[in-house]
Write a structure and sequence with these properties.
Layout (H helix, E strand, L loop, with lengths): L13 H23 L3 E6 L6 E4 L2 H6 L3 H7 L12 H11 L5 E8 L5 E12 L5 E7 L1
Antiparallel strand pairs: 1-2, 1-5, 3-4, 4-5
């Protein structure tokens, strides 16, 4: 006589689904906030010539560049800073390498050539693959 053996394993995935739904809702709310506030938000490598990974759509209203245009030139953004203000920005960038929050007020040239004053504040956070990045807001 042969008897069959069946094993059944069940898991309740409802908590996981609820957590994923809550995360998606939080991300949507965060994105809405970031894209509605009258300020530029960004994520960039530490250092004045670091790569920028994200810039919010407000960059177009404030600096005249589309996000895509800004990301294309952002590695050289220091060239747009008023020469008298460059030492301030460079010092803030250098301090951020040791984890100090970045804070600087400076003049920068818009796409149309006009100069505007900006206040840039950022914090250093752990990025992907343990590579720290700066997450900031510019008004």
């Amino acid at each position: 006589m042969v008897f069959g053996c069946t094993t059944c394993v069940c898991r309740d995935l409802s908590k996981r689904a609820e957590a994923e739904k809550a995360r998606a809702e939080a991300e949507a709310k965060y994105k809405m906030l970031v894209e509605q506030v009258n300020a530029i938000t960004y994520i960039a490598e530490i250092g004045i010539d670091g790569q920028w990974f994200y810039v919010s759509p407000q960059v177009e209203a404030i600096l005249g560049y589309t996000p895509e245009e800004w990301l294309g030139i952002a590695k050289h953004w220091a060239q747009l800073i008023h020469p008298d203000d460059l030492p301030t920005v460079a010092a803030a960038e250098e301090a951020s390498k040791s984890g100090t929050p970045f804070q600087a007020e400076f003049r920068i040239k818009r796409k149309d050539g006009r100069e505007v004053w900006l206040n840039d504040t950022a914090v250093v956070v752990q990025g992907s693959n343990s590579h720290p990045v700066m997450e900031g807001i510019i008004v």
